[in-house]
Design brief:
Layout (H helix, E strand, L loop, with lengths): L6 E3 H8 L3 H9 L6 E2 L6 E4 H20 L1
Antiparallel strand pairs: 1-3, 2-3
Helix pairs in contact: 1-2
Length: 68
């Protein structure tokens, strides 16, 4: 497993994406983004690379919708 320092907590990840923590929780539940659980406290943790991939998907979708 990666070092825990390589992960963002939900509030940090939400800030990174520009959404609320509740929105991010909903996206996890809808399987739009992957969260792992902290082994000790069971908090959601997010890899920055997964968040970057989500941002890229949103950017691509936005570009496609503007072309129509």
């Amino acid at each position: 497993m990666d070092k825990l320092s390589n992960f963002l907590r939900i509030s940090e990840a939400a800030d990174y994406l520009g959404v609320s923590p509740n929105t991010l929780r909903n996206w996890v539940n809808a399987e739009k983004v992957v969260a792992i659980r902290h082994p000790v406290n069971d908090y959601r943790l997010f890899k920055r690379e997964d968040l970057d991939a989500l941002l890229k998907q949103v950017e691509t979708a936005s570009k496609k919708s503007h072309k129509k």
